Amino acid sequence: MRLPQPKRVTVKEWVTAPVPGVVGLDFETFYTSAYSVSQMGNWAYVHDRRFNAWAVSVSDGERTCVCPPAEFPWGMIAGREWVSHNREFDEAVFLRLGDLGVIPRDARPVRWFCSAALCAFLQLPRDLAGAAKAVFGVDLDKTIRAGMKGRDLSADLPGMIQEETDYAACDAEMALALWNTLSGHWPAHERRLYEQTVAMGRRGLVVDWDYVDANLKELNATVEAVSAALPWKPALSITKFEAACADIGTPPPKSTAANDPDFQDWVRDNMRSDAVIWARHMQRMRSANRTAKVLESMKARRKADGRMVFELKYYGATPGRWSGGGGLNMQNYNRKPAEGVDLRRCIVAPPGCLLAVVDYAQIESRVLLFLAGDTDTLDMFRLNPDADAYEIHARATMGWRPEVSVQGSGFSGEETLRQYCERTGSGLRQLAKARVLGLGFGCGARRFIEVAKVMAGLEISFEESDRIVREFRESNPKIVALWEHLNDACASCDGGDYVLPLPCTQVNSDLGRFLIYRDVAAGENGIECTVAGDRIKVYGGLLAENWTQGTARDVLASAWLRCDASGFRPVLSVHDELVFEVPEASAEEDLRRIVGIFEEPVAWAPGLPLLAEGKLCAVYGK
Questions:
Q1: Cα(437)–Cα(189) distance, integer angstroms
Q2: pLDDT tens-place string over residues 493-517
Q3: Is the pTM of this model over 0.85?
Q4: CA torsion, ordered 18, 24, 30, 36, to nearest 10 deg
Q5: What residue spans define the domains of the chain?
Q6: 7-186 has which fold?
Q7: 337: cis peptide before it, omega within 30°?
């Protein structure tokens, strides 16, 4: 594809010949290894004392102007449509320069698009260089940018070498070219989701800063105390740890990760050695440091009004799910405390409000059955609304049946699987949990040993695992058939692209959601393809997992849009969960309405039973 070659013009030349249409825009800013957007996020980066935007590039497709932001004639593009690659960054720079009086605050676009989010939706590489290569076959030289690290070019802009001027211009030009070429493939409702994602992060969350400060102080004290207990410095040096092990005649472990099976075996073999105590100290230090880093990152994002901004990456994962971004992963706030610190406890409701936390129950289990066409098991979900996915699985495929009453147990009525296991000491529910979480996407016997241990706390042999895997596949023929169908469909696209429509698209083509596996190569060693620029191996179970996760994502996205239309705007999204701030006076009614919105049948997934669970709390996760 032939790309336009815009003419590089001066500010004076730009003013004399305006060209209508969308304009591409890109800022160049000062950065170092210790001061970067990837570590700090957009808001903290532009509010840092080191912030300096030394150039802006603006292109209308025919001409490109590169100049200091203060010199550009912003009135010439105010009220027009703009596009940037990673718009959230350029918009943060733009707003900060307006606050600082560098550029006019009212010189704003009517709409500002993001070519990076567009590329992510189309499962192309999100980074500009990768997208340019994938779409246009153009190689962008990013070594110029690397050479600018640590340099303040604001005073040297007029004397920049040609390569630096070309680099600065290229990002704006390429963002515009990508947008003009691809924007028609990004549905309007997905654009709304992107905008709502950005707005949500910019509004931010209310945080208990006293809790943050107290725990940060405690964590730092823990690190100092544990470090002092180790006989070498720096305390986390693996090399010195291994040398100390050698000094006392203890072989060092292959890994010091607490969950590594090899480490656990090493601990059992060397229980009386000081090396085990040292390894535990190092693990505790790493845990405390990780948690402290999260709390420090939160503090760096504190706005003047006390709320904490954050970034959630639209279409951050292949099936379209959101992911963490900006150096603070809000998708990874563990439910279990780390070093006594409950990170979720940091997030609180504002005065006069409560947090309404609503999520879909067993959404992936239900969606997998829906995609596999297992209507009988889905009917069991409808007929037993109080039963969870593990109980339904045990009923449908493991032969378990509830007892109607239990003599002398104080129980009457139909017994749940959880009650049965509590009464009898049976591990049936844990096994059902491991099967549901581990075997639905083609997991083999060796892998299932690890899954059963991590997901359900079960210790099983290879022979037992092999039996369970075979039994699962025999009792779930429709799921196995789904794997085989997807595997064969992908393999049949050898030499081309495998485009798998999501259920929403199958019912309404305007919704335009697909999973795209490019450049399929099927052979004796399996199937390889390119996804978002990465070359990966795929198989039926993985394709089923992607399809399931993508569909579950669309269910949540649909609920998000309906909630927004009803006046409920989430302040946080975590996997299959949305969190809202609701007034205390109407909290119960608001929660009921939100749960009702979540459970509304989805037009493009008839027969998919949805169940939402909601709670009100003053503190997130409590």
A1: 31
A2: 999 999 999 998 876 666 678 999 9
A3: yes
A4: 160
A5: 7-186, 208-301, 373-531
A6: Nucleotidyltransferase; domain 5 (3.30.420)
A7: no
